[in-house]
Amino acid sequence: MPYKKKPGDAITVVSIYKSLLKPIFFRMDPETVHNRVMRLGKFLGRSKANRALIRSIFYFEHPALNTTVAGITFKNPVGLAAGFDKNAQLYDLLPELGFGFAELGSITGEACAGNAKPRLFRIPQEKSIIVNYGLMNDGCETISNRLQNAIFRIPIGLSIAKTNDPSLDTDAGIRDYIKAYRSLHPLGYYTTINVSCPNTADGQTFGHAQNLRPLLAALANEKHEKPIFIKIKPDFTEKELEEIIKIVNSYDWIAGFIISNLTTCREGLKTPKEELDKLSPKGGLSGLPTQKRSLAAIRFVHQRSPKIIIGCGGIFTGQDVIDKLKAGASLVQLVTALVYEGPGVISKINREILCLLHKENLRSIDQLKKKYHTLKKDGPAL
Ligand SMILES: Cc1cc2nc3c(=O)[nH]c(=O)nc-3n(C[C@H](O)[C@H](O)[C@H](O)COP(=O)(O)O)c2cc1C
Fold it and tell me: Which atom belonging to ligand 1 lies closest to the Cα atom of 231?
């Protein structure tokens, strides 16, 4: 079915957000805006009439965007990345915005209040956010109870992480992951093991080989009923990344990687590092500063691993998605684009993808992947 570009719609929705709402939001504290948007989202998701209204404004689909990855069928390859809906409260609304899938969390073994406020800082000149939330969330028990009877209308992934408590040593940290895994793995379409949050109180993560090895060895003894992804940071040296790939490749129950989380690198940006440090000395950067780093890591992993890759980091346009897919990703996720472009960005990106496929004489996302992926990765993971 050829795609006929409809003028207006998605572009207009994005323009309205950028000219009316964004200037108001950007005058307010970012976390306050996030909390209010969450409250509004929960309200809108609750009733069928509200959902239908949101759908009529934002939703877009086209068969050329359909794709099957890890045995799951997706309406389009653009998903919500972890961190926006940390407590799994928007799963009713997210399908109406046009997302192909959504990752909720990260959710930890115990409830966690997160780091001290302020902990979220916009850097508009970098199209980025400094994030120092510190994994605040309601904890796996409350959230798994919340999700017991949930009906998911798009594939939902649940991201788990270690409770942000510096008193947990490696063994206690692993027990914490296992607790979250056992309560949440049965509920989502897939599970993500987030080993790359840069905002833990002690700065430690399970993303390096010496911690990742015992964590995955422990998870190997658990039931693996759904695809499992490992979310990594974009800031590895090639040697470090090679070691991570080797560890992940050795487990056939791991479906793939999510590449990537926030970057901790503050060099090479328009804004001097000192200025960013003054704004917030702690926290990882999202958005544009992660774009090239995540793309390079995707390319690197794609050449060395038969595992599926979900690309994430600095996606604002259809071209950014195509770049990630060509580099080896099978799906993509975004979050910062929602802040800078508004929720109309999802349909806008999907329409742009169709135009770009058309330009390259490609009939579908799947055909693009067939052309550019050196290893076929999209079959069932289990
Ligand atoms: C406010 C905020 C909170 C985030 N929290 C999480 C989180 O809890 N777990 C996680 O895996 N990633 C988290 N991330 C990272 C994103 O999922 C994503 O990997 C990163 O922001 C790069 O994508 P983007 O450029 O589209 O934002 C967070 C990002 C933002 C902006």
Answer: 11
